[in-house]
Amino acid sequence: MPVRDSYRPGEVCWVDLSSRNRTTAAKFYGAVFGWAHDALPSGGGPPYGFFARNGHSIGGLGELSPEMQAAGVPPTWNLYVRVDDVAATLDRAVALGGGVAVPCMDAMGAGWLGFLTDPDGATLALWQPSTHQGAALRDEPGTLCWLELNTRDTARARAFYGPLFGWTFQDMGVGGKPYTVLQVGNTGIGGMMQIQPEWGDVPAHWLPYFGAVDCDDTAAVVRASGGRVVTGPMDISPEHGRFVILADAQGAVFACHQPAASTVEQPAADAAPEPAAAAAGSAPKPRKKSPTRTKAARRPARKPARKPAKKAAKKAAKKAGKKAPKKAARKPAKKKTTKSARRK
After folding, report:
1. What's the pTM?
2. Which residue of 145, 149, 180, 248 pairs with 211 in a disulfide if CB–CB is 3.0 to 4.6 A?
């Protein structure tokens, strides 16, 4: 169990949901991922609580204020990057061509947070820890495993995020499309790809990926719980697994990644995880991001899917006097290609 008690600067340490209704959101994600929800004393501030899995916190759950809901602000997932100084990082973001969505603020003694916008308009949160370090559990089914930036200008994104967080970039191809892995040191933490023209008027956005045992099963539970499937489920490549992009019952968009069976072995400490690229030329259409003012894989193998055996060849006409061929031999089962994140 990959339990975490600290994060390096530049790593994504936390994820939380800004919902319209915490009670219904907790019920939805409890059904989909088995998460428990622990409400925290608000101290007069916005209502907030933790999502937990196996007794470990994995993310947060907040609620949009009545004013934000009246203004049409949609529910959204927020990704938090661990930094040493939120205020200084926000200043640096502005100098690099970005903006400030939420200035540095104290999160009830747990740490400090802020929200920035990059030059293309994507929103990302910052976290400077005090007593709360971040998610205690990551990189397994039902927890954050990848993040992905979809942007219209990848070169400009590199020029912004590289100096800001010290990220480095590794270009590769996934599913026949260009893809860039975001790295802290030699460790892959997420990915980046160019928004394609066929996606339509999609704004730049960060997308969180949660680990899944089976993307198809997860999609079915999402539908049954009142959510919807945005893209997929579909294969990325034989090496990178399978993914699906989903929306919860209130409209917040997130993704799931199921690793390829051949990539389940524990990676070396500095090995990059598999990127969950939206490889099919389709992406969610998130509306403007809204901050929740907050405190802030080893993924199991997908069971190989067996192809159905070919049906026995039809019997030749008896009048032709030919013997009917025997049933075709069963082909060996082929492993279903199966993927990060998120986008955050």
Report:
1. 0.76
2. 145
Pick the more confident residue, 172 or 15: 15
Q: Which value, in Å, is the radius of gyration of the alpha carbons in the chain?
A: 22
Task: Please determine, for residue 155, whether its predicted confidence score (pLDDT) is greater than 80.
Answer: yes
Cβ contact 275:228 at 8 Å: no
Beta strand pairing status for 48-53 and 36-40? antiparallel
Structural domain includes residue 193: yes
25 phi and psi angles, rounded to 5 deg = -65, -45
Q: How many domains does the chain have?
A: 1
Report d(CA 303, CA 287) in Å as an integer: 36
**Apex 42 CA angle, 39 and 43, nearest 5:** 145
Q: 24 is written with which tokens?
A: 């219904």
Q: Domain span at residue 170?
A: 12-263
Q: Please, which residues bridge with residue 112 across strands?
A: 106, 128
Q: What pLDDT score does 220 carry?
A: 97
Residue 170 forms part of a structural domain: yes
Structure tokens at 98: 């970005």
Kindly give, in sequence order, each residue whose CB lies less than 8 Å from that of residue 229, ignoring residues fewer than 6 positions away: 219, 222, 223, 244, 245, 246
Does 113 reside within a domain?
A: yes
* Parallel, antiparallel or unpaired: strands 76-82 and 12-19: antiparallel
pLDDT exceeds 70 at position 270:
no
Are the CB atoms for 135 and 57 separated by under 8 Å? yes
Tokens linked to 139: 């990189």
Residues 6+ away with beta carbon under 8 Å from 305: 333, 334, 335, 336
CA distance 205 to 224: 27
Give domain status of residue 32, yes or no.
yes
Residue 12 pLDDT grade (very low, low, confident, very high; cuts 50, 70, 90): very high
Q: 272, 171 in Cβ contact below 8 A?
A: no
Closest CA to 5 of 140, 147, 125, 138: 138
60-72: b or e for each residue (b if 16 or more CB lie within 10 Å)?
bbbbbbeebeeee
Backbone angles phi, psi at 233, to 5 degrees: -65, 150
Q: What is the DSSP letter of 281?
A: S
CATH number of the domain residue 57 falls in: 3.10.180.10
